[in-house]
Amino acid sequence: MRPVRLILNKIRHSLRYKLLVLVLFPIVVVMPIALLLAIYWGSNFSYEQLYIKVNTDLSVSHDVFQRIQRDYLHALGKTGESYPFRTALASADSTEIQLQIRRLQQENAFSYIHLTDQNGTVIHPREDSGQAVSTRYSSAREAARAGIQSSGIEIFSAAELAVEHLAGPLKLPLITTPRAR
Length: 181
Hints:
64% of the residues lie in helices and 0% in strands. By secondary structure, the chain is mainly α. It has two domains: 2-45; 60-152, no CATH class.
């Protein structure tokens, strides 16, 4: 207690110490508070910026994905409604149908295309795929049965990919990055 009294006495009796206290006291009190607020604001700002960036990236990806789906649906619809395809389908010209399906697949980078009847049996199968088989459950086929055009994403198991000969080409390896944990 004695050193504190000594300091207080010096401050009371000296104008120099009074001015020094008036200048330093706000700095000593305000600086740590300002520093803590800056750290808090910086961490919140960084998190909010990261959140906004991720949200924006996901929104852009979602919009691009929906546009690609619409483009695929349009390409399928355009081919299905075309006169050459309808004529080949009506006359059961398997060669012409295969040619048009192969062209559609190449132009639009489809992994595969099956032309099926309403029961899901492949009609006009590719020459390299063997016999006509009943395909798996498909939400797109169910929509087609109801007369609704649709396109979408379907998840295949490894066995289903192997049946379609897609297991190798569609394998996406994980790539290690320097900052990955």
